[in-house]
Structures are given as structure tokens and as C-alpha cells.
Amino acid sequence: MKQILMGNEAIALGLIHAGVDMVSGYPGTPSSEILGNFQKFRDKNKLEAYAQWATNEKVGFEVAYAGAISGKRTCATMKQVGLNVASDALMSASYIGLKGAMLLISCDDPGFYSSQTEQDSRSFAKFARIPVLDPSTPQEAYDMVKLGIEFSHEFESIVMLRPVMRVSHAREICDVDDALHVKANQGNFERNIPRWGAVPPAGRFRQGLEQIDRLEAIKAWNWDHLIKPKTHALKGETILCLTSGTGDGYVREAMSELEIKADILKLDMPYPLPKEKLEALFVNYDKIIVFEESFPCIEEQLSSVKLYGKLTKHVHLIDEFSKDKVLAALAKADVIAPSHAYQSEKYDQELPKRPPNMCPGCPHRDVHYAITKVFKKKKSIYTSDIGCYTLGLNQAAIDTILCMGASISMASGFSISDPDKTVVATIGDSTFMHSGVAPLINAVYQNHKFVLIILDNSTTAMTGRQTTPERTNPNQIDIKRIIEGCGIACHEYVYEQDLTKTVDFMKSLQEAYKTATSPVVAVVREFCVLDKDNALGRLGNVVVEVDEDKCVACDSCITNYKCPPMHYNDAGKMEIDPFLCAGCGSCLDVVCPTDAFVKKEEK
Amino acid sequence: MKYQIVIAGIGGQGAVFLVKVLSIASAITHQKCLGTENHGMSQRGGSVSCYVKIGDFYAPAIDEGQADLLIALEGNEALRNIQYLSKERGVIVMNAPKNFPKVDFETHSIDAFKKAKAKEFPIDALNVYMLGVTLALDAHFPFTCKEIEEAITMMNAKVAEKNITVLHQGINDTKAKK
Ligand code: SF4
Ligand code: SF4
């Protein structure tokens, strides 16, 4: 049956068709729609399956892994930086293996579209010594999910699927199974202490050896089933392009559009590679060029003086592929003359910049604004974390961002290293649950003094509003009680679209800080403006205008508050774009020193 | 046939909706289609650009100098993406005010914001309105009005009627202007 599917939908459907009925993970762009779509398909087809967001990726991985060692078919989903969090568990699990099947999906983000790093999950597969499948389109992603699950079952190994953003968020007409034969598979954990509980060194040593044997078998399988059948299509040109994932599409298109002669061999499982067999192919070619995103995973496994790639600096080292980059690599390797077939001039006049910014009407903006207003920049350090509030960078309201949870632990560090400044940490509710609790315990335990503000909008907003623990179980999991569980007071503020009140709340925290001997912790109860249920009745309805006579173009609103509708008009005065303004009215009283913002009418 | 479309706009304007409609239209007309969307960090108000490649393609992104059509839901976003247009074939359909800078491509513009301000159509249907404008203008556009209507209905039957009305409003406004 043909269906139009986005990559992540294709993956979700593939999971269902592969008989997976246990999915756990943590949201992260570009992976987030996999679990959500799995839930949708499950409900539509009335299947019995577990699919829930975990508090973080390590937890998600471990839940799915336990399912797999009980014989079930399971899956864990995350993005590449999430895999860093889950890597502790992955390293051990890859030694031990499993009994049912488990697909680990880690979505990469070449080009840094929504990530702090460009790391390549295939390198992690190599590090953990597990096979990895690298799809290049939604259709392939669907097929590889099914292949991966079968393969995982056969080899008792976790299998990684690593789609990149251009696969996860691509949309294609896919050929998928018609019938649905899925029934819940029953888990049955069988006690086997030497295997599941092996402790160092003897037990693990043996498992390590077994893992190496397994890898050799997988290499042979990779050659027999995935690579060798493709070698029949090689035409005996003088150049061989080794490709993987999306790199393949760019190479194929450029070659056919510009009529460049070369053989292309796509490696569906870029690790582990049958090195000797592949290298034996090289004798027939003058040059072998490797096109892969993002790190030189294939290239590092092969050796030949004929090999060109990232390690030899013939292929670009960072950023996603494009056909222009394919041509540049071919030119550098002296295969073609330099070509600019895929280059064109940009518009050369200045255009209004639209860096990622918080939505108009978002409560986070007010909180950041109030923090910088009360805890002055010169006397403070602002640590923050990963989520929509990270965009407070635009307001210069954030000094550091490292990784999930680091706002709190780094606040501890700064409170020791630079004690004359007030450290103000901000973190969202989902991130706090993900990895903020442990550093808070550490801060209380060691009496680190800083201000911590938890921005609780009860959703994982940045990745598309996935549910969070306290949203699902509001009467049990409560941030305030977690803080109180640490034996300290929780300052609570229910957000209103009135900046004066938010500023006053910050002043109260500043007072509390003066006499504090441990962290001053607050929770601000917010909402996300895109969150229909929670924002209902809390959104504004005023039409705001700028009084041109009062506006002195001092930049103060645009630099410190930075709401997207604010821009200068031809007369050099501030103006509000009515199509972007959410009508919240927050900017009315505080942000303008000359009170130029005025309310025109109720919407 | 090979036809490549860049859709540019601001977060919240519904560029992604258009990608979906165009890929459904491709399926209806039995053509291969590869689309990608750029979402994640871009919240409301940020730059958004999406690609739709109809025909025999393998790479998800559109390269510079290759697109046949640029649909821009906002004028400056058209300029920001102009390098994707083909020098020979490139056509721009954009929502921009009258006094907008001239560029070296066949350009069709309409001040849809002004019409929305005058409450001629609801602003949240700007995307569909611009699709109507495109249908009325671009002779090479690979779909007919009927096929687009069918795609809109398949997308979401509940709001299809409203959307199709706005689609025709876009078509009619453009024809009236001509
Ligand atoms: S998505 Fe929600 S939380 Fe994120 S910036 Fe927009 S309103 Fe704020
Ligand atoms: S009322 Fe002011 S603060 Fe609120 S969205 Fe409009 S411009 Fe932004």
C-alpha cells in the first residue's frame, strides 16, 4: 500500500509492522515524532503496546532494554545528544546482548539545525560495537526498521538505526505493508545470572570476547546480504564512490544531472564493515571517494592509498551535504574540473534577521526579562539549560548553556569560583526532571548558594509539546514537593501576563537570597502559548500599539525584551506587527522607559 | 517531469501545511515526491523554509540555482531564499507590499497582508491563499486546481470547505488584478 509519510511516521509504522510493542525514549529534534506517531498508530489500530516518554534517554533506553532481555521486541528513541546520556547503559548492554529484539533509534542533525553538536551516532555504534543502519529516505527508514528488528533478534544484539534530520523530516510516498498482523509479544524474563548480572572481570571478559566474535559474523552478513548483491550493478568505471545515508542521494543526483562517470556503492550498514572484502574491490579503481555525513565512520574502517574523504581533507569536515559539496570534493580529488553548477548569488542587501526566538506571548520572555532587571548583568551570572527558554540568549539573559541539567551543576560551580556575583540558573520542567534533580540534591547537600528558577510550563515545548511527568500525574509528581523533599523552601509564582508582578517576584527572591545559606529555589507556573489545554483562558486579547510621539528609538525594548513583532518602521520608530503579536499585553507597563507602548483596544 | 519548489515564510504561517498538500497532490497525480521541512528551533516568528521535489529525485534538499518556483508567504523571506531559484526557469510568487525591491526573476506579488488586515480572508489561511495565487499565475505549476482541491480535502476534510473558498479567493483576486 502506498502512503505519504514523513520519515518519522514511516519509522513509527515500521515499528508496528515489525512487531515492536514497547517503545520508550525522550523527545529531541529531529527524533520526537517517532514515539508520538507510534502512539497514534497504536490507538488507531487498537493495538496493545507500551509507548511512553521516559524522564530521560538513559531511563528510556533501560526500560526498552529490560523488555528486550525478557524476549520482547522493543525500541528506544532519542536524538544524538540524547544518546550521550544513554551511552552509559548502551556500553554495557552491547556486551551483554539480548534475547528478543531492540532497535535503538538515534537521530542525527548534520548542519546543527536544532542541536548543540553535530556528532555522528554511527561513531557511537562503533564505540559500542553494535551494528548500525543508515537510511537515506523515509522509505528506506521504514524498510530498515523491519530489517533491524529481525537482525537484532537473529544476532541477539542491539541494532542502531540512525536517520538524519533530512530523513526524519523528509516526506515521501512510501510503499508499506497492507495487513497488520501485530499482536502483543509476551515477555518472560529467564534468570541467567552469569549473563544478565555478570560482574567484572571474568564474566564481562568472556562477554567481550563473544561480542568480538559476533561482530565478525555481522561483518560477513553485511557483505553477503547488503553489499555483495549491489556490487553486480557496478559498471567498471575508474572512480568508486562509497556512500551512506543521505550522502548517497546527493551523490547520485549530482552524478546523473552532470553526467559524471563513476560507480556508486551505498553501504546500508556502515558499521561493522567487511574491511578485506571491500578493499579487494578497490584494485579495479583509480580512486575511491567516501561521501558520508557527518564523521568519517566508513573511512576510518578502511585503508588504502586510493581512499579520499574527510581524513584526507578532500570532503568537507562539518555541516550537512549538498550537491555543491559533492562537486567540490570531486574537484579536489581531481576527478572533475572545478564546477559551480550548484551555486547562485544570494540577495546582497541587508534583510531583517530572524534568529530563533521565543513565541510572542511566551511567559519565558517575561521571566528572563525580570531576572535581568532585578539581578543586574554586571553583578550576576546567568546559567541556563536546553529548551525554549534557551532562546533567552536573544535577550542576553543567558551566559552559559552546556547540556541537559548543567544549569544547576554549573551554578554550583560558579557559586564557588566567583562568589561575589549572584548566580541565577534557569531550567524548564522537563529538563529538571531529565537531569536537574541530581544536581539540585548536590547543591543542597553541599550548601551552594545561588538562585534557581524552574520554568514550569508542564510540557516539553521545544520539541513539539510532548507530555511531561507532572502533566500526566499531576497529583503525584510535583516539582514543589521534589524541592521540599530536599528540605528547602520552594518559592512559587503563578505567572500572569503582567510584567510588574513578575519583576516583583524576582525582587522577593533577591530578598531571600540575601540571608540564604543554600540554594534559593523557585518554581514559576507557566504555560506554552501553543499548548491549547493549558493556555486556555490565560492568553491575552489586547491590541498593542506604539505611540510614535513617545518612542525615542532607544532600542531598550528590542534589546532587552525582544518580542518578534517589534521592529522599526520607515520613520525609525518602533512598530508592532499585528500578524505576529499575540496580544498578551506584557510589554505595556515595564519594557519602555518612555511608556510608548499603549493598549489600542481589546481584541 | 522534474519540478522543484521552495516554500519560505515565518514560523506560524503554515509553510509545512503546503508541503503536505503538495505531496498529497503528487501522490494523486502518480508522481514521485520528496519534501523536507525545517522545524525544531524555529518557533513562531522565525524563518522557515521547506522543499518539495517532484519527479525522480534522491536528495532531500534543493540546491542553489535549481528551484523552479519559490512561494514566499512573506516578502523578505523570498529575498532570503532567492539563491535557490534557477536562473533560467525560476519564478517567484510572493506576499509583499507594492514598493518591494525588484529582483532578476519573473516575480508575481500580491499584498496579502493588506487584504487580511481589511478582513478579506482570515490570516491563518494565508498559506492556502498564496497557493491560489500560484495556481492562477504559474503556467508551469504541475497541478491543476482540482488536484489541489482534492489534496486539501484529503488533508483535513473538516476544514476543507473553508480552505477551498480561500484558495479560490486567491485565484480570483489574482485574475482580477491581471
Ligand atoms: S513553543 Fe511554547 S514554550 Fe516555546 S517559545 Fe513558544 S510559547 Fe514559549
Ligand atoms: S503584546 Fe507586546 S509582548 Fe505581547 S506579543 Fe504583542 S508585542 Fe509581544
Write up what this structure looks like.
Chain A is α/β, with parallel strands linked by helices and 603 residues long. Chain A folds into four domains: 2-198, Rossmann fold (3-Layer(aba) Sandwich), CATH 3.40.50.970; 233-333, Multifunctional 2-oxoglutarate metabolism enzyme, C-terminal domain (Rossmann fold, 3-Layer(aba) Sandwich), CATH 3.40.50; 363-534, Rossmann fold, CATH 3.40.50; 544-599, Alpha-Beta Plaits. Chain A has 22 helices and 21 strands. In chain A, the strands form six sheets. A six-stranded parallel β-sheet of chain A has the order 3-2-4-5-7-6, sandwiched between helices. In chain A, helix 4 packs parallel to helix 5. The longest helix of chain A is centred in the middle third of the chain and has 30 residues, at 202-231. Chain A is globular and about 75 Å long. Chain B has 178 residues and is of the alpha/beta class. Chain B has a six-stranded mixed β-sheet with strand order 2-3-1-4-5-6. In chain B, helix 2 links the parallel strand 4 (69-72) and strand 5. The longest helix of chain B has 21 residues, at 157-177. Chain B starts with a strand and ends with a helix. Chains A and B meet through strand 1, helix 7, strand 8 and helix 10 of A and helix 1, strand 2, helix 2 and helix 3 of B. The complex binds iron/sulfur cluster (2 copies). One iron/sulfur cluster (SF4) binds next to loops of chain A.
